[in-house]
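Subject: design request, 151 residues
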């Protein structure tokens, strides 16, 4: 009887929809004149290959990190790992993509923090209008108190 290969546990498997989308996008860039279909087996092969590559890259980056007596893997460790496993041609494009990602995030954070600051100022102004100062009683309350005391 032939041994059945163990199936990958769900948490380790890459989402099929994302793998399918990535593969189809790349294939459409390569051949714009025809639509290429993917068989289920080919999609599984792409997914499994990607998973193995990610494990290999992360293991290599982990080793580089440990050699530096650190416990947290940073982007430079991943770049060095790519060079070590002979995928140096990816380092340049990945550095560019990382810089672009960081720039977009910093722009979003700046926009979010400035929006929060504006909202915070509006809320403070609204609260000041709604409630009088602690030592100050509103005029209507003073009038009501004066009428009650017979003044």
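Subject: RE: design request

Done. Sequence follows.
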């Amino acid at each position: 009887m032939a041994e059945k290969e163990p199936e990958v546990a769900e948490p380790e498997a890459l989402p099929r929809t994302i793998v399918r989308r990535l593969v189809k996008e790349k294939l459409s860039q390569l051949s714009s004149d025809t639509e290429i279909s993917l068989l289920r087996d080919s999609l599984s092969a792409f997914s499994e290959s990607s998973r193995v590559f990610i494990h290999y890259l992360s293991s290599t980056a982990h080793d580089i990190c440990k050699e530096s007596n650190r416990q947290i893997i940073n982007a430079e460790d991943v770049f060095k790992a790519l060079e070590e496993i002979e995928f140096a041609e990816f380092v340049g494009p990945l550095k560019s993509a990382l810089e672009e990602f960081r720039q977009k995030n910093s722009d979003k954070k700046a926009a979010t923090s400035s929006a929060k600051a504006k909202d915070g100022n509006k809320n403070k102004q609204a609260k000041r209008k709604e409630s009088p100062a602690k030592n100050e009683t509103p005029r209507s309350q003073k009038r009501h108190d004066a009428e009650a005391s017979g003044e």
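The two ends are 106 Å apart (CA to CA).
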